[in-house]
Protein backbone atom coordinates (compact mmCIF):
# COMPACT_ATOMS: atom_id res chain seq x y z
CA UNK A 1 0.00 0.00 0.00
CA UNK A 2 1.22 3.47 -0.88
CA UNK A 3 1.30 5.91 2.00
CA UNK A 4 1.80 9.66 2.26
CA UNK A 5 2.99 11.85 5.09
CA UNK A 6 3.26 15.62 4.72
CA UNK A 7 4.55 17.79 7.56
CA UNK A 8 5.75 21.26 8.36
CA UNK A 9 8.59 22.01 10.76
CA UNK A 10 10.67 24.93 11.89
CA UNK A 11 14.37 25.15 11.15
CA UNK A 12 16.12 26.32 14.32
CA UNK A 13 17.78 29.17 12.48
CA UNK A 14 18.05 30.11 8.82
CA UNK A 15 20.03 27.17 7.49
CA UNK A 16 23.11 27.77 5.35
CA UNK A 17 23.01 26.29 1.86
CA UNK A 18 25.72 23.79 2.88
CA UNK A 19 23.42 22.34 5.53
CA UNK A 20 20.50 22.11 3.09
CA UNK A 21 22.73 20.37 0.54
CA UNK A 22 23.77 17.83 3.17
CA UNK A 23 20.13 17.04 4.06
CA UNK A 24 19.27 16.68 0.38
CA UNK A 25 22.21 14.43 -0.48
CA UNK A 26 21.42 12.17 2.48
CA UNK A 27 17.70 12.10 1.64
CA UNK A 28 18.11 11.44 -2.05
CA UNK A 29 20.29 8.41 -1.73
CA UNK A 30 18.21 6.84 1.05
CA UNK A 31 14.85 7.59 -0.56
CA UNK A 32 15.87 6.33 -3.95
CA UNK A 33 16.89 2.95 -2.60
CA UNK A 34 13.72 2.70 -0.50
CA UNK A 35 11.21 3.70 -3.17
CA UNK A 36 10.31 6.94 -1.44
CA UNK A 37 9.38 9.89 -3.61
CA UNK A 38 8.38 13.38 -2.56
CA UNK A 39 9.27 16.99 -2.28
CA UNK A 40 11.03 19.19 0.25
CA UNK A 41 10.54 22.93 0.40
CA UNK A 42 12.45 25.32 2.61
CA UNK A 43 10.62 28.60 3.05
CA UNK A 44 12.53 31.47 4.62
CA UNK A 45 12.45 35.22 4.92
CA UNK A 46 10.80 38.06 6.72
CA UNK A 47 7.09 37.63 7.28
CA UNK A 48 5.26 40.33 9.23
CA UNK A 49 8.52 41.44 10.86
CA UNK A 50 9.32 37.95 12.03
CA UNK A 51 11.94 35.58 10.69
CA UNK A 52 10.09 32.72 9.04
CA UNK A 53 11.96 29.47 8.34
CA UNK A 54 9.94 26.35 7.73
CA UNK A 55 10.40 23.03 6.06
CA UNK A 56 7.48 21.43 4.27
CA UNK A 57 8.05 17.86 3.17
CA UNK A 58 5.95 15.28 1.38
CA UNK A 59 7.08 11.67 1.70
CA UNK A 60 5.31 8.93 -0.24
CA UNK A 61 6.02 5.27 -0.83
CA UNK A 62 5.47 1.89 0.82
CA UNK A 63 3.88 2.48 4.25
CA UNK A 64 6.62 0.75 6.24
CA UNK A 65 9.35 2.72 4.45
CA UNK A 66 7.60 6.07 4.85
CA UNK A 67 6.84 5.59 8.55
CA UNK A 68 10.37 4.31 9.19
CA UNK A 69 12.12 7.35 7.71
CA UNK A 70 9.56 9.69 9.25
CA UNK A 71 10.46 8.42 12.74
CA UNK A 72 14.09 9.35 12.03
CA UNK A 73 13.19 12.73 10.55
CA UNK A 74 11.07 13.54 13.63
CA UNK A 75 14.13 13.09 15.86
CA UNK A 76 16.44 15.18 13.66
CA UNK A 77 17.79 18.17 15.60
CA UNK A 78 18.12 20.34 12.52
CA UNK A 79 14.43 21.22 12.84
CA UNK A 80 11.69 21.31 15.51
CA UNK A 81 7.93 21.86 16.12
CA UNK A 82 7.05 19.26 13.54
CA UNK A 83 3.32 19.20 12.66
CA UNK A 84 1.77 16.56 10.45
CA UNK A 85 -0.40 18.24 7.81
CA UNK A 86 -1.63 15.16 6.01
CA UNK A 87 -1.18 11.43 6.49
CA UNK A 88 -2.82 8.40 4.97
CA UNK A 89 -3.07 5.85 2.17
CA UNK A 90 -2.89 7.10 -1.41
CA UNK A 91 -3.71 5.37 -4.68
CA UNK A 92 -1.06 7.04 -6.83
CA UNK A 93 2.13 8.93 -6.23
CA UNK A 94 2.00 12.72 -6.53
CA UNK A 95 5.71 12.93 -7.30
CA UNK A 96 6.99 10.48 -9.83
CA UNK A 97 10.75 10.91 -9.56
CA UNK A 98 12.35 8.79 -6.83
CA UNK A 99 14.67 11.51 -5.78
CA UNK A 100 13.38 14.15 -3.42
CA UNK A 101 12.53 17.33 -5.30
CA UNK A 102 13.67 20.52 -3.61
CA UNK A 103 12.80 24.20 -3.70
CA UNK A 104 14.11 27.03 -1.55
CA UNK A 105 11.43 29.70 -1.38
CA UNK A 106 12.58 33.19 -0.44
CA UNK A 107 9.78 35.23 1.10
CA UNK A 108 11.87 38.39 0.73
CA UNK A 109 11.40 38.23 -3.04
CA UNK A 110 8.09 36.34 -3.28
CA UNK A 111 5.68 38.80 -1.70
CA UNK A 112 2.67 37.14 -3.27
CA UNK A 113 3.28 34.11 -1.02
CA UNK A 114 3.11 36.08 2.24
CA UNK A 115 -0.64 35.75 2.60
CA UNK A 116 -0.40 32.00 2.06
CA UNK A 117 2.33 31.38 4.63
CA UNK A 118 0.74 33.74 7.09
CA UNK A 119 -2.06 31.19 7.45
CA UNK A 120 -1.51 29.22 10.60
CA UNK A 121 -0.45 25.61 10.38
CA UNK A 122 -3.89 24.43 11.46
CA UNK A 123 -5.56 26.22 8.59
CA UNK A 124 -3.02 24.78 6.16
CA UNK A 125 -3.67 21.34 7.61
CA UNK A 126 -7.43 21.90 7.57
CA UNK A 127 -7.63 20.02 10.87
CA UNK A 128 -5.95 16.97 9.40
CA UNK A 129 -8.56 16.41 6.71
CA UNK A 130 -6.92 14.10 4.15
CA UNK A 131 -9.07 15.63 1.40
CA UNK A 132 -7.64 19.10 1.78
CA UNK A 133 -5.00 19.50 -0.88
CA UNK A 134 -4.10 23.16 -0.58
CA UNK A 135 -0.53 22.64 0.54
CA UNK A 136 -0.01 19.47 -1.48
CA UNK A 137 -1.11 21.26 -4.66
CA UNK A 138 1.32 24.05 -3.83
CA UNK A 139 4.18 21.56 -3.56
CA UNK A 140 3.14 19.81 -6.77
CA UNK A 141 3.13 23.12 -8.62
CA UNK A 142 6.76 23.72 -7.62
CA UNK A 143 7.71 20.20 -8.63
CA UNK A 144 6.43 20.87 -12.16
CA UNK A 145 8.46 24.06 -12.47
CA UNK A 146 11.67 22.49 -11.18
CA UNK A 147 11.51 18.74 -11.73
CA UNK A 148 14.24 16.89 -9.86
CA UNK A 149 16.91 15.57 -12.17
C1 LIG B 1 13.85 18.65 7.01
C2 LIG B 1 14.54 17.32 6.91
C3 LIG B 1 14.11 16.40 5.96
C4 LIG B 1 14.74 15.15 5.84
N1 LIG B 1 14.31 14.28 4.89
C5 LIG B 1 14.91 13.08 4.77
C6 LIG B 1 14.49 12.15 3.79
O1 LIG B 1 13.54 12.39 3.02
N2 LIG B 1 15.17 10.97 3.69
C7 LIG B 1 16.23 10.66 4.50
O2 LIG B 1 16.81 9.58 4.36
N3 LIG B 1 16.64 11.53 5.44
C8 LIG B 1 16.02 12.72 5.60
N4 LIG B 1 16.46 13.59 6.56
C9 LIG B 1 17.59 13.18 7.42
C10 LIG B 1 17.10 12.30 8.58
O3 LIG B 1 16.45 13.13 9.54
C11 LIG B 1 18.27 11.56 9.27
O4 LIG B 1 19.33 12.45 9.51
C12 LIG B 1 18.76 10.42 8.40
O5 LIG B 1 17.70 9.52 8.18
C13 LIG B 1 19.90 9.63 9.09
O6 LIG B 1 19.44 9.19 10.34
P1 LIG B 1 20.34 8.23 11.25
O7 LIG B 1 21.63 8.95 11.46
O8 LIG B 1 19.52 8.06 12.50
O9 LIG B 1 20.50 6.95 10.49
C14 LIG B 1 15.82 14.84 6.70
C15 LIG B 1 16.24 15.77 7.65
C16 LIG B 1 15.61 17.00 7.77
C17 LIG B 1 16.08 18.00 8.79
What does this structure look like?
This protein has a 5-stranded mixed β-sheet, sandwiched between helices. A hairpin with a 2-residue loop joins strand 2 and strand 3. The model has no long low-confidence stretch (mean pLDDT 86). It has one domain: Alpha-Beta Plaits (2-Layer Sandwich), CATH 3.30.70. The longest helix has 17 residues. The chain is of the alpha+beta class. The structure holds flavin mononucleotide (FMN). Flavin mononucleotide binds next to helix 1, strand 3 and helix 2.
Beta fraction: 25-35%
Give the domain tally: 1
Q: What's the overall geometry? A: globular
Q: How many angstroms separate the termini? A: 26 Å
Biggest sheet strand order reads 4-1-3-2-5
Q: From N to C, what is the helix and strand string?
A: EHEEHEEHHH
Total of DSSP H or I helical runs spanning 4+ residues: 5
- Taking all residues together, what is the mean pLDDT? 86
